[in-house]
Structure formats: structure tokens, C-alpha cells
Specification:
The chain has 253 residues and is an alpha+beta fold. Helices cover 41% and strands 16% of the residues. It has 2 domains: 142 residues, Periplasmic binding protein-like II (D-Maltodextrin-Binding Protein, domain 2, 3-Layer(aba) Sandwich); 92 residues, Osmoprotection protein (prox), domain 2 (D-Maltodextrin-Binding Protein, domain 2, 3-Layer(aba) Sandwich). It has a 3-stranded antiparallel beta sheet. Strands 6-3-7 form a 3-stranded antiparallel beta sheet. The radius of gyration is 19 Å and the shape is globular. It starts with a helix and ends in a 6-residue tail after the last helix.
């Protein structure tokens, strides 16, 4: 989307894919990358190495700390993309959640002792993952089974596990009919999406104006739907992005 918006204003763009967050972070500091989308939680803990809060995660405080930390590295946070957050969450089968009236992590606590938790390869060990959920909610599962992230969905569908930690924008949440549970005590860090760019480019008003049309526009449900077009329908990413921007009236058809 960022590339298409800039092209609409006459800029030539090169989109480099397949790079992890640390590579992008180092690239933007070295002027090898101009702009990309980062998550506040990733920038906070993985890039800036800031300590987790003593009590709960406040999205606004995390954002402020990230803006301040990145500015010291010559990186501007242009804007947040709105309600689009790619948080870790806890999910259970929707039918089971409906039967037992479970909609929050706190609701899950009385049942957890009889449940198997299917983790990806890191969530069960990360200090801001399952250990943090245990600490805040006092929740204990009967067993925890780490596995490849691609297998956790099949495992919960086949009732080999009872709960898993998907990302909130993962299209498979809907595909596998899962209920994501509300984190009412803010145990898990916020991963709000934001556009970051090198300071030298942030001074270009034409560039920033072209990208600011996305500010506060994309919510989590919309992003999950767009992801489904890519993951499930196998549509081309650029085509999905173009169709969305045209529908929103942000670029010409």
C-alpha cells in the first residue's frame, strides 16, 4: 500500500520483502530502507530492548516510549495505522467458547487445569508471552505443547490441543472458527502498526502527505480480511493492496 500511494504521486518505488524486523531496523538506520511498517511491541522489546512494565501494558505509553527511542536513532514514527494491531492473543474453539460462555482470558482460568495449550516455538517461553499470562491471571494449563506455528491450527481443529496463541490479524482465526479472548488485564504487549521512516525522508511533505492518508484507517478485522485474500484465496499482494486503496478512494482506479 505504501508503494502504491507513493507511485500515485509520481515516485518510483522498490519493495524489498522477506526481511525480518532487525534487518529493516538496521537498514533504515543506514539509509538502505526509507519506510516500512513496524509494530510498537516489536520496537519496544526487540529493537529498543526496553524493560517490560511492572504491572500492565498501556498502548499509549508503549507508543510514546517507542517514538522517543526511535527518534534517538534517526527514525521518525509518521503515524499509527489505526485499530490495526497484530497482538498475540489466546484463542479457543468458538463452539466451546459459546457453550461455556468464555470471551476473556479471565473466563478461561477455571477451565485451564483440564486444557492442553498448543504454543508456537517461542510464546511459551517469552517473558512477555505465556509466563506473563500466568503471572497476571494465575492461569495454569494441564500441559503445554510447543510446535511449529503452522501446526497449531490443525492441532486445535483436531482437538489435540484446546487453546493456542495466534496473532489477532491471522486469517486462520476465522478459517478455523476460533474465538480470540479479550485480554482484560493487559497482560500481553500491544503490537500496534505504525509507519516508520528515516528522518531525512520525513522532512519531505509530499511523501508524508501521501502516506498519512492511512492514519487511523485500517482496523484489525479489515487487516485479517485482507490477509485472508492472500493466505486463503492466494491473490497477489499488490493486487489486494491496489483494490483496497481504490475502494477507499485513495488512488485512482
Amino acid at each position: 500500500m505504501l508503494g502504491l500511494l507513493l507511485e500515485e504521486q509520481g515516485y518510483k518505488t522498490e519493495i524489498k520483502s522477506g526481511m525480518n524486523d532487525l534487518t529493516l531496523y538496521e537498514g533504515i538506520k543506514k539509509d538502505q530502507v526509507d519506510v516500512y511498517v513496524e509494530y510498537t511491541g516489536t520496537a519496544y522489546s526487540q529493537l529498543l530492548k526496553l524493560p517490560p512494565p511492572l504491572e500492565t501494558w498501556n498502548p499509549d505509553v508503549v507508543h510514546e516510549d517507542v517514538v522517543s527511542g526511535l527518534s534517538k536513532e534517526g527514525i521518525t514514527v509518521l503515524c499509527r495505522l489505526g485499530g490495526f494491531r497484530d497482538d498475540y492473543t489466546i484463542a479457543v474453539r468458538k463452539g466451546w467458547a459459546d457453550e461455556n460462555n468464555v470471551s476473556t482470558i479471565e473466563d478461561l482460568v477455571p477451565y485451564a487445569g483440564d486444557m492442553v495449550f498448543g504454543s508456537d516455538l517461542v510464546f511459551h517461553e517469552r517473558e512477555d508471552g505465556l509466563p506473563r499470562v500466568r503471572e497476571v491471571y494465575g492461569i495454569t494449563f494441564k500441559d503445554v505443547k510447543p510446535m511449529s506455528p503452522t501446526l497449531v491450527y490443525e492441532a486445535i481443529a483436531n482437538k489435540q490441543v484446546d487453546a493456542i496463541p495466534p496473532y489477532t490479524t491471522d486469517s486462520r482465526v476465522d478459517l478455523y472458527r476460533l474465538r480470540t479472548l479479550e485480554d482484560t488485564k493487559a497482560a500481553l504487549p500491544p503490537y500496534e502498526s505504525m509507519i516508520v521512516m528515516r528522518d531525512g525522508l520525513a522532512g519531505n511533505e509530499n511523501v508524508t502527505a501521501a502516506l498519512l492518508v492511512l492514519e487511523n484507517r485500517i482496523d484489525t478485522e479489515t487487516m485479517r480480511s485482507l490477509n485472508a485474500e492472500f493466505d486463503i484465496d492466494k491473490r497477489d499482494a499488490r493486487t489486494i493492496a491496489r483494490d483496497y486503496l481504490v475502494r477507499e478512494g485513495l488512488i485512482s482506479g
